[in-house]
User: Fold these one by one.
Assistant:
Number 1:
Amino acid sequence: MNAPPALDKPALDKPALDKATLDQGTQAKLVGTRFTVPGMRCAGCIAKIERELPRIDGIEAARVNFSSKRVAVHHRPGLDEERIAEALRELGFEAQPVAENPLGQEEAEKKQLTRALGVAGFGMMNVMLLSVSVWSGAEGATRELFHWLSALIALPVITYSGRPFFSSALMALRYRRTNMDVPISIGVILATALSLYETITGGEHAYFESAVMLLFFLLAGRALDAEMRTRTRAGIGALLSRMGKSASVIGPDGATRRLDAQDLEPGMLVLVAAGEALAADGEVEEGSSSIDNAMLTGESTPEPVGKGSEVHAGAINLGGPIRVRLTRTAEDTAIAEIARLMDEAGQSRSHYVRIADRASRAYAPVVHALAALAFVGWMIAGAGWHQSLVIAIAVLIITCPCAMGLAVPAAQVVASGALLKRGLLVKDGSALERLAECDVALFDKTGTLTLGEPRPDISGLSAEDRAVALGLAQNSRHPLSRGLAEALRAAGVEAAPVEDVRETSGSGLAGRWNGISVALERPEDARTALATRLRIGERATTLGFTDPLRPDTAATIAALGEAGLSASILSGDREQAVAKVARDLGLAARAAASPQDKLAALEALRAEGHRPLMVGDGLNDGPALAAAHASIAPGTASDASQQAADAVFIGERLMPVALAIRVARSTMRIVRQNFAFAILYNVLAVPLALFGYVTPLIAAIAMSLSSLVVVANSLRLARSAGDAA
C-alpha cells in the first residue's frame, strides 16, 4: 500500500478557498449571480462561455457547472442580470437567473427528451414496417401509397422529436457559431426534404426511415446522459430546508410571536422549545439544555449548552427551553455558509471535461467539410445534383455520432445498474470517470467508518435493571437514551412501570419505581461523553456506549490498498475518538477538522498531484464531498451530504466503496473500447459513403448497427461488476 498522504497541512484562509481566480480585494467588491443555461452541450460550450464572458466590461469571471447546466458569474454590482443574460444569448445560449427557475429547467429538459424519444420510437417502428414492403419489391401505386403513409407519419414525428436538435442548431447559427446539432439537423432536414420530393414526384426511393431512425438513436444517447445527470439531484435547497422554518420571538413586553425564518433579524431574542430546530445562529442568553448538533459536526453525542454557548441553525434542542439572542440569520448562518461552500466547490468539479466532450470537439467542422466535399466532388464529376445530394446526405447520416454519443452513457447506465444491485447508487454520469482516476481515499469517522449509532453494553445488567432502564429511557429523545431503549427492546426486555418520569437538561432522567428513586444520569467521573449511569435507590451501574466500526471496514481499506489507493481519516470528531479508530485501522488521521479545513486538505493533496476520493456523511463533510475529485456518502448521511456526493451506498457494509473503484475502472476500459470501435466504424464507413457506395438508407442501418454494437459491448459490464463483487 502507498504511504498515506499527510493531513497536517495548515488550513487555508477563506479567500484561498474561493474557486474564482480573484484577489481578495477585488472579490469583496463583486457579487455572484447564477444562470441556468440548458443549451450547453460539450466542452466547446464551456470554453466559449468562460473565455468570452469575462471580456465584457463589469464581468470578472465565469465558471460553468456542466452537470447542472449552470453558469456562476462574478461581476460588479452595477451590472444587472438582464445584461449578463443578453451577453450569454449573444454567445448563442439562452439563459435565465437561477432564482427564477431553481430546479424545474433540468427536469423539464429531461421530460422533453423522454417524450421526444417515445415519439421517435413510435414513428421509427411504423415507418420501418412500411419500408419493408418497399424493400421487398412493391412498385407502382403500392409503393407511392406507402411513401405517402410514411410521409404522414414521419413529418410530424421529425418536427416534434427533432426540436431539441433544431432549436440548438438554430440558436448556434443565429450567432454565427456551430455545434454538433448543426450537421445533425442539416442531415435530418435534407433527408426529409429529399424524401418528400421523391414522394411528390413518384420517385423510387424515399428516406423517411433514415431520418426518424437517426433521431431515435441520438435521442436515446441524450436521454441516457440526462438520466445520469439528474437522477437524484435535488439542489442545495434540501440542505437549507433542515433549518427551522420559524421561531418564537420574545418582544420587549415578554409576549411571544411566531416569525418565519426569513423575517428573523440579528439581535432578536427567541424561545427555543424542547425538540425544536433552531432557525438561526445565536448565543444562549438564558437556560441550559443539550442540543443535537450532528447535522453540523457529525458527532452523535449531544452537546450541553448554557448561558453564553454558541448555537447554530439546524441544531435540535433536546432538553428544556432556552432563550437565544440571534447573531446571524438567513444566508449568514453557518448552515447557509456550508451550502455556499458546497455550491462553489461543485463549480471546480464541473471543469472535468468528459471523454465524450473531448472526442466530439472536431465533429461539426469535419462532417461539414466531408459532406460539402462529397457534394462538390460528385457535381464536378458530372453526377448531377440529385445523386450528389443523396451521397452528401449519406455522408451526414453515416458519420452521425450515435455510437460516439452512446459510448459513454450506455456504459455508465449499465455499470450504475450493476452497482445499484450491489448497494451503491451512482448519481452523476461523470462520477465513474472520476472514480476510476482516484488514488487517495479520505474517510470521515462517525457514520462512515463507524455505524454512527451509539450502542450500549448491557451485559452487566440484571433483568430487573434492564426493565427499569427501559422504563426510563423510553421517555427521552436523547440519542443515548434512544440507543439504550432500542438495544433493550431488541433483547426482549419489557419496560418496568416507572412513574413521575422527568428529564432535566444536562442531568438526565429521574422517576420512581415501586416507591424507589430511579434515574439515568450522566456519570460525574465519566472520562467520555458516551456513558450513562443507571441508579436504583443507592445502587448505581455505569453503562458504556460504543460506536462500532462497520463490519468490513478493515477489509475495505485493504481492498482499496490493493487497487492502489492510500487511505486516511479526515474527521470533525474529537481527537480522542478519532485516534482510537486510526490506531485500530493503522491509518493516518486528522481530527477536529472544520469544513474549511477539509477543503484545505483536499487542495493540499491536489497540489501534490493526487486525485482524492472523499467518503463522508455529515453536513460538515458536504463542501469536501462536492470539492473532491469523486465522493461517496452512506445512505444514513444527511440530505446535504447525499446531494453533494457522486454516489450513495446502502447498508452497514463499506465494501461498496472499493467495488465502486473496481467497476469504475472496468467501465472506463469499456468506454475506450466503444470509442475505438466508433472511430474504426467511421474510418471504414466514410470512404464508402464518399465514393457513392452507400445510400441514406444503408447509412442509417449502418449507423444503427454501430450503436447496437456499442450497447452490446457495454452490457458486458453487468457481468464484470458481478465478478468484481
Number 2:
Amino acid sequence: RKEGRALRRRFYDSNPAFRKFLESIQEKATSEGVLIGLDGRPLYPRSAHSAANLWIQNAASTVTKKATLLHFMFLEMNGVRHTIDFTLAVHAHDEWQLEIIEQEADTASELALQAISAAGQFYDLKVALSGETKVGQTWAETH
C-alpha cells in the first residue's frame, strides 16, 4: 500500500492536469451524482472513485461509434457499398472490424483513419486522434 501511494503521488505530481481532471470529475460525481458525456448524455457513476473511469470509457465508446458511422459514410461516398462490398463484423469498445471485398481493403483502411480523425474533430477534442488498421483473414491477424 505504501509503495502504491508513493507511485500514485509521483504520477499525479508528474501529471498535474490529469490530477485536476480526476479531482474535478470526482467532485462533480459527489456533488451532483451525474456527469455529462461527450455527446450530452447523462452518466451516473456508482461512486466518486469510479467516475473518471466511467467518463473516459464512455468518451472512447462515443468517439468510436461516431468514427464507425463516418467510416461507413466515407466508404459509401467512395462507391464502396454497404452489404454488397462490406459489412460490419465486430464493434466492441474502441474498435470495429469489417468484412470487405479484398480490392477495397486499402481504401477502407485509409478511410478508417480519416474517420477517426474526423470523429475527434466532431467532438472538438483538444488532442488529434489517430488509429491503426490491420488487414487479415482471421481475428488473430487483425489484432
Number 3:
Amino acid sequence: MNYILVMTLSGSAMLLIYFIQKHTFGKNLPRRWQYLFLKAVMVYYLVPLPWLGESYRKALKDIRKEPPQFFHQYFRNEKVVYQSGNNMMISAGYQRRLLEAGIWCLMVFLVFTVLLVGYLKNYRRMLQCRSGGQAAQEKESLEQKRLQWHIRRKITLCSIEAGTVAFTMGIWRPVIVCKMPEQSVDRDMLISHEMVHIKRFDLFWKMMGGAVLGMHWFNPLAYLFRREFEKVSEESCDELVVEGYTEEERFRYALMLLEYAKGEGQMRGWKTGLSKNAGKIQERVELIMDYGKGRKKWTSLLAVLFMGIMAILNSMTALAYEEVKVLRVIEEEDMADIKTMNVETCFTPDDYEGENLWVDVILYSQQFEDEEGNIYPVGEEVVSYSECIHVYHVGIYKNHQLDGSGGCTIDYFEGQYCSNCGYCIIGEEVGSSSFKKCLH
C-alpha cells in the first residue's frame, strides 16, 4: 500500500500547487499550459516513481558524504532483494507488498474493464449509424478541417436530424456525433472544436482521468482533479479554436456553444463534447470573449517557470517510497539455502508478535559486509597472497557463534576485504550482540 499512498500524496500535492498558480496568475496563464500541468498531475497520480527516490537518496548521500553504514538492519516488513549473478529473490515482506498492490490494481482494472465494455458498445452503435449519404458540404468541411489540423486518422461523421447534441467518440477511428449547423460558418466552428479534441487525444486523457479516480477513490482531491481536468480540457480547446478569431467571430462561436450545450447529456460515458453545466458554460463564454485581453507575455513566462520549478520540487515526494535493499550473495549455491528459508521464522522468533524486530543478515559464520551491503564469506584461516594486487573494500567483519543452548553471539570488527584473493584484515572490535534464541 506504500506505493498507492505515496502516489496519492504526490498527485494531491501537485494538484494543490496547480490551484496556487491558478489563483496567483489567473488569466495570464493560457489554458493550454494549465491543461499540460494537469497532465503532469495525472502522471504523479498514476505512475509510481520509486526509482526516482533511489536516485535522490544516492545523490543526498554523495552530497553529505555520509560514512558507510556497517550494520545492516533488517525489518521483517522491509523490501529486500537477494541477488547472486543472474539469480534474484525477494523477501516475504516484499512479496506481501507486491501482492497488496496487485490486488488493488486488479480491482481498478476490473472496474475500468466494465466501463470500457459499455463504451465499446456505444462506439459500435455510433459506427453503425454513421451518415452514409452525407451532404457534399459536410464531407468537404470535414476533410478540410482534418487537413487543417494535420490529423492523419480517419474520421467518421454521424449526422443526426433532431436534437442539439455534439460529441466525439473513438481514439484511433474517431466518430463525431452531431446535428450539423445549417450555416457554413457555424459548421466550421463546430468541426474545429471536435478536431482539437481528436488531435490532442482528449478522449484517452479523459479515460486516464477515470483511472485516477478508480485508483484513488478514497481521496476527495481525486474527484476535484477529474472535475478540474475535464473543465480545463474544454476551455483549452475553445482557446485553440478561437485563436485568431475577431471579436464578432468569437461572439458567434459562444452562441454556437450555448446552443449545442442544451442537448448535451443524452449519452453517458467516455466522450468529448460540449458541456451543459451552467457555471462551466458561463466561464467558458467569458473566457472566449476575453481571449487575449490583459495577458502579458512576461507574466505567462513567469507562470510557466513557476509550474516547472514546482513540478521538479514535487518530485521530491518520491523519497517517501520505501527503499528496496539489495543484498548481494556472493556464492550462488547459497541462494538455494535462502530460497528454502521462511523469512518470518528465519529472522524473527516463532512466538514474536511485534512488527519491527530487526537482526543482522547472517549468511556465513564468518563474513565480511562492505559499505554497499555486499556480503563475502571469510575462511577459518585468514591467509594473505603475496602475489595478489589487493583491492580492499572497507566494511565490517562479523563472527557468528552458537552458544550450544539455542542462542548465539555476533562480534563486530572493523575490517578491510580484498575482492581479488579474499584476504581479510581484521581491525579493532566495535561491539557485539547476543541472542537467547538464534534468529539466523
